[in-house]
Amino acid sequence: MNKKLFSLVLFAFLLGLYAEKTNAQASGVKPELIMYRHNGGGITPAPVAVDNIIGTVKWNGLTAIGSIVTGASIRSVAKQVSPGLLKANMVFGTSGNDRVIINETGLVGIGTMTPQYHLDVEGNTHTSGRFFGRIHFDFGMPTDLPSSYLDEAYFEHKTRTQLGLGANTYSSGGILSLAPGNGSLDRQLFTGGDDGLWTRSQELAGGNTWAAWEKILTSGDINGRPNLLARFLPPGPTSSKLGDSQLYDDGSNVVIGGIPAAPAAPTPVFNAADMLTVNGNSRTTGNSAVNGNATVTGSTTTGTLSVGTTANIGGLTTTNSLSVTNNATVNGNATVQGNVGIGKAPTTFDLDVAGESNFDGRVKVGAASFPGSTDYELAVGGGIIAEEVLVQLEGSWPDYVFAADYKLKPLAEVENFIAEKKHLPGVVSAQEVAENGLNLGEMQQAQMEKIEELFLHMIAMNKELNAIKAENSALKAKLEQLNQRN
After folding, report:
1. Which residues, other chains included, contact 126 with Cβ-Cβ below 8 Å and sequence gap of 6+?
2. Which of these three, 87, 121, 155, is where a domain ends?
3. Among 60, 88, 121, which residue terminates a domain?
4. Do residues 213 and 187 lie in contact, with contact meaning Cβ atoms separated by under 8 Å?
5. How many alpha carbons fall within 13 Å on the CB side of residue 416?
6. What are the strands, taking DSSP E only, across 147-297?
7. Dist CA 388 CA 366 (whole Å)
8. Has residue 16 been placed in a domain?
9. How far apart are CA 74 and CA 94, in angstroms?
10. Cross-sheet strand order for the sheet of 282-284
11. N or C, which end of the chain has less CB nearby within 10 Å?
12. How far apart are CA 102 and CA 108, in angstroms?
């Protein structure tokens, strides 16, 4: 064979080897494609060293004559080497930049080459499908990295029938379950239907049973006119809606009764000099102390009037029963050993008034004494039943929560506060209520503040969830592109 022919045969052989390598494939029962990295050469090559690239796969393309560019790549870098041990990472790159890493311990980083978690994403995430899994609470680590997962929160799809809620045009909804663990009670939020949010707590005894669902009041559940105290609306026996009562308070005068039906403006008739005006009958089953003037426009026909000192009643002094048809002025203490009717004949009640009543001083009903503070005009030593109660707050209603400069406490900070104080920030503790009583207006204001803060947290969580969905959708699209290329 001449040299020329030999050269042609050798070139064809090498070309065949090159074509075989460039179109390498593995087949069989246990196919493998292996990249073998060693240092040095000869009979005794040197071992791989830390930070050596032990293999790279590239996808190149011809972008112009004489220009070949790498579009994507996968490489592996040695991170721990010893006899019989090799730990390495995998770095995925596109367009000349590193995008994703699986490090030697199995942590995955997207957008970061130094992941700190099993999945560490730098940037937005998005998913267009369902999220399977649970969100875990990190215990006692408000600022540093998570290290002690305690319990979890998770979302579920439920129907109102499954939860025992009333029928609604929209039968399905979703539950957010919060299970912080560490001895605390679990709580659930349900949204579904057109009647707002519902919540329930794990039974106080713990276990796997739940207390009854409670509706969270919203602005759609609270309807009222200025200066009218709110009352729970029928039907009963329980109610989740508030509306107008017949008790009017403009900050200076209190009027009971005489309130026109909505939507008319509440303009009851009263004398500005009278702190309390009752437009209708008034009944007191216990003692009444009047420190100012009392005007009786009716007459008494039964009972006894006992006067320990001189009494001037229409110019008449008496120590026996008395029927007065004109004005009566009592300049001392008065004891009535019987029933009194004012504006009407006495009935079986100790005092029966037909008409308006006015008290220029403080009123005490059934209480042992007046409160120490003079800010309270009415002291009641027992329960109060009213169709409506209006609390006229002096401070602002908590819509300030929605102001741009409002500092919303992070949930982790709220959790730490609850763990330490055993009550919500801005809400009075059980001890304060036991010592000082409960201010209805302040409590309603505090509850509304917490409700509005809760909505802000839920809006933020919804935005984060939507961002995660968007990011996951983008990643899915990129993965599909890679699969198509392969």
Report:
1. 466, 467, 468, 469, 470, 471, 472, 473, 474, 475
2. 121
3. 121
4. no
5. 10
6. 149-159, 172-179, 187-191, 197-201, 214-215, 228-232, 242-249, 254-256, 276-278, 282-284
7. 21
8. no
9. 9
10. 282-284, 351-353, 340-342
11. C
12. 5
Selection from 167, 165, 163 nearest residue 177 by Cα: 163
Listed residue (37, 51, 110) closest to 479, CA to CA:
110
Token pair, residue 32, equals: 């493998």
User: What is the pLDDT tens value at each position of the chain, 486 positions in all?
Assistant: 444 444 444 444 444 444 445 556 778 898 888 888 889 877 888 999 999 999 999 999 999 999 999 999 999 999 999 999 999 999 999 999 999 999 999 999 999 999 988 888 898 888 887 777 777 766 665 555 555 666 778 888 889 999 888 889 999 998 888 887 777 888 999 998 888 889 999 887 766 788 888 888 777 778 888 898 888 888 878 887 888 899 999 999 999 998 988 889 888 888 898 899 998 887 777 666 655 555 544 443 343 443 333 334 433 344 445 555 555 666 666 677 778 888 888 888 888 888 888 888 788 888 888 877 777 788 888 878 888 877 676 667 888 888 888 888 898 888 898 899 888 988 888 888 888 887 777 888 888 888 988 998 898 899 999 999 999 998 998 888 888 887
Task: Domain count for the chain, please give it.
Answer: 2
Tokens of 92: 């995925």
Report if residue 40 sits inside a domain.
yes
Q: Determine whether 353 is exposed, middle or buried from the number of CB atoms within 10 Å of its CB (0-12, 13-18, 19+).
A: buried
Question: Which value, in Å, is the radius of gyration of the alpha carbons in the chain?
Answer: 41
Residue located via tokens 């329960």: 383
CA distance 424 to 451: 12
| Separation of alpha carbons 34 and 86, rounded Å | 15
* Residue 90 belongs to some domain of the structure: yes
Distance CA 385, CA 247 (A): 12
N residues, the chain: 486
Q: Which residues have a Cβ under 8 Å from the Cβ of 112 and sit 6 or more positions away?
A: 101, 120, 121, 122
Does residue 386 lie within any of the structural domains? Answer: no
Which structural domain range is residue 419 located in? Answer: 398-474
Cα 331 to its chain centre, rounded Å, is: 59
- Tell me the two tokens of residue 184: 């605390």
